[in-house]
Amino acid sequence: MDSENLKVKSTRRRELPPLPQTSRGRTLPSLASQDTVDEVPRSRRKKAKKDPDGTEDMEDTGMEMGGVASRRQSVSQTPLTPEPQEVPAARKKKKKKQQTLDLEGDQAGLVNGDAADAAEQTTDAEEAPRKSRKKKKPKVVETPYVNDLDVEEDDIISDAQSPIPQHSLFSAPTGQSQPVGKMFVEHGRRFQAADRIDKRMASDQLDTNFMDIQSMWTTRDVSLKVHSGYRVIGLFAHGFLAGYAAWNVIVIYVLSGEQFSTLNNLLQQYHSLAYPSQSLLYLLLALSTVSAFDRLNLAKATIAMRSLLMLEPAALASLLYFAALVLTLSQQMTSDRINLYPSSNSTLWPPGSEHTTLYPWIGVNLAVTLMVGLAWALISTGPETDYTEEFLLSMEVEYPKPPQKADMPV
Amino acid sequence: MLQANNFSVVLLIQLTLLTFDLFVNSFSELLRSSPVIQLVLFIIQDISLLFNQFIFLLMLFNTYVFQVGLMSLLLERFRALIMLSMLYLLFSISLHCWMMSLRWMKSDHFVWTNGLLVLFTLQRTAAVLYYYLYKRTAECLGDPRLYKDSPWLREAFERSRQL
């Protein structure tokens, strides 16, 4: 028996096929067919017991390669004399072999063609009752490796390793980590430990709070809020400046009299208002100019120039406000002179100098009034135009995604 | 990542300093009865101007772009404000020094000259441009992309490495 086993084993070793080729179109045999394949070696072993000499060759053709047949014949004709020392080793190896028989059977079933099918069909009828008694063989994963090295099934890795995920250049490397009982949740600047069970229960609330997440403020929202708030201030400044400039020039012309005949009256009545008026005018012009620049998005010079060439209202208003600002600042010295009319009457206002000093001042004030009035009208035609707001809205914001259930750690 | 609350506080401080600067520029000439008042106002204005610059630089250093090493990207984006703020600071200090030197002995006298008027006009005009650019920059620093990794940042990083 042992010699027969040795024979079987030796023949088995030589009969192991190389890498299976699917040119014949054979598929993996099912469990049932595996059982029949497994039963074939046992039946052969039994037959080998009965016919140790030659007939096993006929059975082995279903299992072996064609080129090995001659060698097998020589082996069968010269039976090996088993040595007593080799018996226990053979038995141990036999046990290992039995584990790999399934594997070999599958490989053999792949490699050998119709002969194996015929052998299976003949043995199916005989071995069908034995199927129920047979233990369910574990599904053996076929490997493309040649099993010359007595590799055990446990050492065979069937699943390919998952590729190492590519992580971003700046983010921390991702990898499998051991799960811990606690989670660390960020609250403000600190991390607080929390049980995973609690978080899992709270995950149901996250779905309902998802809409609340989008209502959370971001830095972009703060910027937009500040910008819209200043736009309201700017709108008020535009209107107030236009009205105040109009009132100012009307007062100047009324106090000056017809054809500027009563300039001394103007100086006497207006000297206390000149410097505060100048200061207020600068304040309103600064606010209005910044607001007009915001609407134009002056920082984008190319877009601003294109808007100006296209004679867009926001661009024209910005230009008018800036020109009015420069003209108003240029009259600072004259305004201070008017302010100091009572105290420095003889030095600052020699007789006959009122016309030469006040004509330009009145003219500039009139020009400033017309400019700011026209700019206010231009802005009123397109009050919703705001290129800076569009630029701020283009800042991307990623809202935190709700954790999916599949991603929740177990 | 910059939090909205922190950003709101910083923005509030910046706008407060800007508002103070605007009011000093507008009404400091009305408070010249005593030269000390104007001197104190000018000193506070210049210090607030410097403080505003420090806050702006700190906001830049707080960005992820700066921490990665792409300082040139930030400087290119905000170079207008950086240059104008330095120019405005120069004009302000020059005008304040000149004005105080003229008004220290005679506060309520006429001290204007053509040169002083030109410098005064330049300083007030630069102030308006400074207010606009600083407000816009402060709002742009609320861009969330400056505080996190993103594809455009990686592309910029690769380009800088190739250079």
From TrEMBL, chain A:
<feature type="compositionally biased region" description="Polar residues">
    <location>
        <begin position="21"/>
        <end position="35"/>
    </location>
</feature>
<keyword id="KW-0969">Cilium</keyword>
<keyword id="KW-0812">Transmembrane</keyword>
<keyword id="KW-0966">Cell projection</keyword>
<feature type="transmembrane region" description="Helical">
    <location>
        <begin position="275"/>
        <end position="296"/>
    </location>
</feature>
<dbReference type="GO" id="GO:0060027">
    <property type="term" value="P:convergent extension involved in gastrulation"/>
</dbReference>
<feature type="transmembrane region" description="Helical">
    <location>
        <begin position="232"/>
        <end position="255"/>
    </location>
</feature>
<dbReference type="GO" id="GO:0035869">
    <property type="term" value="C:ciliary transition zone"/>
</dbReference>
<keyword id="KW-1133">Transmembrane helix</keyword>
<feature type="compositionally biased region" description="Polar residues">
    <location>
        <begin position="71"/>
        <end position="80"/>
    </location>
</feature>
<dbReference type="InterPro" id="IPR029409">
    <property type="entry name" value="TMEM237"/>
</dbReference>
<feature type="transmembrane region" description="Helical">
    <location>
        <begin position="358"/>
        <end position="379"/>
    </location>
</feature>
<keyword id="KW-0472">Membrane</keyword>
<protein>
    <submittedName>
        <fullName>Transmembrane protein 237B isoform X1</fullName>
    </submittedName>
</protein>
<comment type="function">
    <text>Component of the transition zone in primary cilia. Required for ciliogenesis.</text>
</comment>
<dbReference type="GO" id="GO:0060271">
    <property type="term" value="P:cilium assembly"/>
</dbReference>
<comment type="similarity">
    <text>Belongs to the TMEM237 family.</text>
</comment>
<keyword id="KW-0970">Cilium biogenesis/degradation</keyword>
<feature type="region of interest" description="Disordered">
    <location>
        <begin position="1"/>
        <end position="140"/>
    </location>
</feature>
<dbReference type="Pfam" id="PF15383">
    <property type="entry name" value="TMEM237"/>
</dbReference>
<feature type="transmembrane region" description="Helical">
    <location>
        <begin position="308"/>
        <end position="329"/>
    </location>
</feature>
<dbReference type="GO" id="GO:0016020">
    <property type="term" value="C:membrane"/>
</dbReference>
From TrEMBL, chain B:
<feature type="transmembrane region" description="Helical">
    <location>
        <begin position="80"/>
        <end position="99"/>
    </location>
</feature>
<comment type="function">
    <text>Required for ciliogenesis.</text>
</comment>
<feature type="transmembrane region" description="Helical">
    <location>
        <begin position="6"/>
        <end position="24"/>
    </location>
</feature>
<keyword id="KW-0970">Cilium biogenesis/degradation</keyword>
<dbReference type="GO" id="GO:0005774">
    <property type="term" value="C:vacuolar membrane"/>
</dbReference>
<keyword id="KW-0472">Membrane</keyword>
<dbReference type="InterPro" id="IPR024133">
    <property type="entry name" value="TM_138"/>
</dbReference>
<keyword id="KW-0812">Transmembrane</keyword>
<dbReference type="GO" id="GO:0005929">
    <property type="term" value="C:cilium"/>
</dbReference>
<keyword id="KW-0325">Glycoprotein</keyword>
<keyword id="KW-0966">Cell projection</keyword>
<dbReference type="GO" id="GO:0030030">
    <property type="term" value="P:cell projection organization"/>
</dbReference>
<protein>
    <recommendedName>
        <fullName>Transmembrane protein 138</fullName>
    </recommendedName>
</protein>
<feature type="transmembrane region" description="Helical">
    <location>
        <begin position="111"/>
        <end position="133"/>
    </location>
</feature>
<comment type="similarity">
    <text>Belongs to the TMEM138 family.</text>
</comment>
<keyword id="KW-1133">Transmembrane helix</keyword>
<dbReference type="Pfam" id="PF14935">
    <property type="entry name" value="TMEM138"/>
</dbReference>
<feature type="transmembrane region" description="Helical">
    <location>
        <begin position="36"/>
        <end position="60"/>
    </location>
</feature>
<keyword id="KW-0926">Vacuole</keyword>
<keyword id="KW-0969">Cilium</keyword>
